[in-house]
Amino acid sequence: MSHYRRSYVPGGVFFLTLVTYRRIPLFSEVENISWLRKAIAKMRQEKPFDITAAVVLPDHLHFLWTLPPNDSDYSQRVSRLKVLFTRSLQRKSAFSVEISASRRKHRESDVWQRRFWEHTIRDEDDLNKHLDYIHYNSVKHGLVTCPHLWTYSSFDKWVKAGRYQVDWACCCRGNLPQVPDFRDLEDKVGE
C-alpha cells in the first residue's frame, strides 16, 4: 500500500488539485458550479482561510489556499468541501454512475477521485508559477483561447490587483500570446 506524505506548514499557501471521479465533467453544468460555491462558502465559515487563486474546469479544480497562522489543516478542508458538494448532488438526485465494490465498501461516492494533489508553495517564484498555471489552465485544456475568456477563474481578481494585464497570454486582436513555460510543473500539479 502506498504511503502518502503531505506537507503541513502552519499559515502556509497550498496548491491543490481535486479531480472528479472518472473525470466526469460535473462542472460543465452551471448549477453544479453554484453548488460548489455554496459548499466552499459553508466550509470557509466553519474553518476560515483565503482562496488566493482558483480555476474550475469541467472535471477538475485547482486552488491556491492560504491558511491562517498556526493552522495547517488543508486536508480537513478538502474533505469537508468534497462532503458538502457531494451532499448537494445527492439531494438533487441527478448524478450516479457505476461505482466499484471497493468504493462501496469504503462508503465513497461517485463524485470525487479518492485522493487529491497538494503542493506547498515555497517562495514568491513558486507562487507566481502556480498563479500562472491556474490562470492559463482553461487555455491549456482548449476550453478558451485566452485566460480572460474563462469565467470560472480568479484571473479577473488578479487583473484588478495589478498582477496581470487583461491581455496576458492573450491571442485576441491578432496578438501572439506569450505562453508560459510549465514544463517544470507538469508532473507536479496532479492532472
UniProtKB/TrEMBL annotation:
Residues 9-137 form the Transposase IS200-like domain. GO terms for biological process: DNA transposition. SMART domains: Y1_Tnp. One of its GO terms (molecular function) is sequence-specific DNA binding. InterPro entries: RAYT_transposase (IPR052715), Transposase_17 (IPR002686), Transposase_17_sf (IPR036515). This is Conserved domain protein. It comes from Coleofasciculus chthonoplastes PCC 7420.
